[in-house]
Amino acid sequence: MTTDLALRTRRFALDTIRFCSSLPRRAEFQVIGRQLLRSATSVGANYRAAKRARSRADFIAKLAIVEEEADESVYWMELLSDIGSVPKPELERLLDETRQLVAIFVASRKTAKRGQ
Fold first, then answer.
1. CA-CA distance, 112 to 106, in Å (whole number)?
2. What is the pLDDT of residues 14-34, one digit of tens each?
């Protein structure tokens, strides 16, 4: 499961990088695209850090960061959807994946907290 989630967050980052490179070159898309790139790529990086946590409390704190970054990615994607002029099917697929990741990390954090 852990390895699967690590691979899933990595694939999510790569898919988001590819998606952002397809955005129109207008300023508003480039600004939002940069924000989305930062938050989406940090999901996997912070999950990787969480797996190396030194304690349960550290793990929970790092998972909270992962959750925040994934949720921020949802925000930027929703904004892109509202603006329009983006590849809709790919955006919808990424948005669904991001929401699933948020739900996974919320549940994981709650489970870890219960074990404290």
1. 10
2. 999 999 999 999 999 999 999
